[in-house]
Amino acid sequence: MVIGKFVKLDPKVxxxxxxxxxxxxxxxxxxxxxRFNAMPASWNTPVSEEPxxxxxxxxxxxxxxxxxxxxxxxxxxxxxxxxxxxxxxxxSTSGRDVDKITKFNIKLxxxxxxxxxxxxxxxxxxxxxxxxxxDVGEVRLYVFEILAVYVKEGLYTQWGWDxxxxxxxxxxxxxxxxxxxxxIRAQKVQ
Length: 190
Ligand SMILES: Cc1cc2nc3c(=O)[nH]c(=O)nc-3n(C[C@H](O)[C@H](O)[C@H](O)COP(=O)(O)O)c2cc1C
Fold this sequence. Notes:
Helix content is about 10%, strand content about 35%. A hairpin with a 5-residue loop joins strand 2 and strand 3. It has a seven-stranded antiparallel beta sheet with strand order 3-2-6-9-10-5-4. A three-stranded antiparallel beta sheet has the order 1-13-14, with no helix packed on it. By secondary structure, it is mainly beta. The protein has three helices and 14 strands. It has a single domain, classed as Roll (Pnp Oxidase, Chain A), CATH 2.30.110. Flavin mononucleotide (FMN) binds next to strand 3, strand 5, helix 1 and helix 2. The site of flavin mononucleotide (FMN) has 21 residues, from strand 3, strand 5, helix 1 and helix 2.
């Protein structure tokens, strides 16, 4: 691969595409309208191992923001590459206007440690309770303490996902998603 010179970009124009594609999760929350809601978030990251925590960044205009302020638990569900259409649809409508769980036939099942259910068809589901919050600009960053983790049997190894069998869903831009492509292993550091 030939790597050329740097060209300057405007940080106000989609600077974050430099960090995409980004693993997408679907957050299920309990909302003030009495329903559960589901929204994709590709801005997320593990934070610490002890305690186990994950941060998810939520725009304050999303209904999910109101849902998390109403009830401080959520399931962080990991979709697979075959679920791009439904994930995109969940991210293109608001639970403020429609019951997305019914409309998109999202199958839910009870979680172990929290009262918010998990998405049955995800390949993993992490049960989280809000541990910390940080306001930055138009968003609130929620750090969830992870209380339980479930993965679909046969797809997960001690090294993580078995990518010969499945792929997590990476969000590029707009309607563009990727799976995980070739794998390489870095040289050992002496
Ligand atoms: C693949 C994908 C990833 C997204 N990632 C985020 C994100 O990380 N944070 C966010 O606030 N919105 C994100 N969005 C937008 C929300 O999912 C979208 O605004 C959604 O309609 C909010 O739903 P709600 O109003 O029911 O909460 C994403 C959308 C898509 C399609």
